[in-house]
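sorry for the late reply, my laptop died twice this morning and i had to redo everyting from scratch. anyway the thing you sent over, i finally got around to it. pasting the sequence first so we're on the same page, its 305 residues, then the predicted structure underneath. double check i copied it right bc i was rushing
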Amino acid sequence: MTDNRAPSHFIYLALLALFWGSAFMFVKISLDSISPLTLSASRIAIGAIVLTLITLKMGEKLPQDRGQWLLCAIIGIIGNVIPFFLLNWSIQFVDSSLAAICMSLSPLFTITLAHYMTHDEKFSANKLIGIIFGVLGVASLFYGTMVEVATSTTLLLALSGLLATAFFYALAGVLVKRLKNKNPLSTSSAMLISAAVITIPLALIFETPWTLTPTAPAVYSVLILGVFATGIAALILFHLTHLAGATFVSYGTYLIPLVGMTAGYIWLNEPLTTTYLVSVSFIFTGIFLAEKRTKKPKLKPTNKK
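ok and here's the structure:
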């Protein structure tokens, strides 16, 4: 990869941050009249349809091996079913801005998981220091939230649910590396299809969605979440990773909470508290230190006589 990146790379990165960062606001809007599990099922189903149509349109095939489908289903559960529900349930009790900040912890969780689950991504001094800063960010976020809002068991569970969401996103990312089928469209479609097959029956059983009366803003928000934040975002993610590399894509981590906080502040009238700014500073510093690579000293040329 060269340092002189094409302008399109930055456009794709901005779109990815926009789709994912604004998703927290749309989830908050949807939950006004749609229950958490039904929202998850709707979002995943729409994303699966969009991505599968794109996959077939481009002449790609879905996985043929049963073992690959099983692994895709496992990753779909870990990366979509569980975290989507946890996010939807938790965000009912906190600001969408706070949820966006918590999601920025995913890279630090990924670093920790990769150390134990891979053989070539072990801890370094920088990574350990970065994780410490991430922990400080979480601590300041929890402490500040408890001070600013009346402490309750529900609030603690919501904050824990958001951290668990970031953890499951990270775990799914590490498991993706074990897929033998490296075709991103094929595997991502299979993961969303599997997740939809699991989530839709759960929503039908536990939430009876046919009794809901969603508002127009909620319906529009679900469509945006399914088409853009789930389906199109996955396509951009894989395309940009192919063009610019995973490291460049990871820079979007810095933009997502900023987009999430801005969207919540402008459209949902959520406050930009000192707690949020302090925790974001700690987390961003942690990610920067964890991703920073130590430069190898250059060997001085020897003058041979």
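Residues 7-291 form one domain.
thats about all i looked at so far, will dig more tmrw
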